[in-house]
Amino acid sequence: MAATLQPHPPLRPHSIHSYSGLAKPPHLSRLESVTHKTGHVEPISIEVDDAHGGFAPGFLHLPPDIFTAGSGGTGTPPPPPPPSASRGAGTGSTATESQRPAAALPPHHHRTAAILLSGAGGGVTGPSSIYLSLACKLATLGRGIPTLRLDYRFPARAAPCVADAKAAMAYLRDLYGLDRFVLVGWSFGSAVVFTAAAEDARVVGCAAVASQTAEAEGIARLPPRPVLLLHGSGDNTLGVGCSQRLWHMYGNGDRMLQVFEGDNHSLSANAERAEEMLCEFVARCAGVRIDAQERRDVVGVELVDDGERHDLMERGGDLRAPERED
């Protein structure tokens, strides 16, 4: 029997304004003081054109130098798009002239973005608030990776959540010219990741933290694309057997399963190590090399202290029922 978290009755979609103060991790200055870089974080709302309608909120982390003078850009992020430009279709949409990027990507850019998806309650900070710092680190790497922390309109409902992910890919393509994606999901969000990836070849890699198995059958269609599975052996919400079954379902190919002994559903005892593994995995999928200095000055910097993680998860919506931390 497939393991899943049971959805609660759908609520009204959350607004990006629900997440005031969560655009950046509390200790971002630790990263900026070493790298001397300041990334850009845009609060966005992406319109999803499906039967349910509505907007999926999120935070988009852009590298400080994503648009360079050598490519005809200005070195600064484009201005906020007009209202029509925030639309993304579940099946992808073609950008109008007003939706096209204000500055072109440099020819050598990897054209890859990461999209981070939370669990059955939605949210924007991820397990143990890993997403809050992971997004900043990915955007700060030498060849920075734009990263979107995306909330759902209707959490724990697979079809609308998959539509949210597809709309996000359309948004990033139409406004920023990004057409390769690495998807990361926690708990229920992993099923969204595997389903969306199975239906879209532009997804070049998938990572899952404490995944469920229900509605995650898409993982069998992913080889040879790389997959990373992280799980705690002490997970009382979705047992480690879920990720072990998914590892077998994937079959032969570029797969890795890391089990953290005794850890819980949100990997609270190994949050830093899990974040490092996710950062390195996303970078590898994007073709971005992390050298020893970046591993020390970017990947290894703690932007969220352990004592802050639970509170940030609550504020970020990641512990809404039926999602759990243990």
TrEMBL record:
Locate the compositionally biased regions of type Low complexity.
85-96
Which GO terms fall under molecular function for this chain's record? hydrolase activity, acting on ester bonds
Chain segments carrying region Disordered: 1-24, 66-107
**Superkingdom assignment:** Eukaryota
**Domain annotation AB hydrolase-1: ranges:** 109-221
Q: Cite the Gene3D superfamilies for this sequence.
A: alpha/beta hydrolase
Describe the family membership recorded for this protein in Swiss-Prot or TrEMBL: Belongs to the AB hydrolase superfamily. FUS2 hydrolase family.
- Protein name, per record: AB hydrolase-1 domain-containing protein
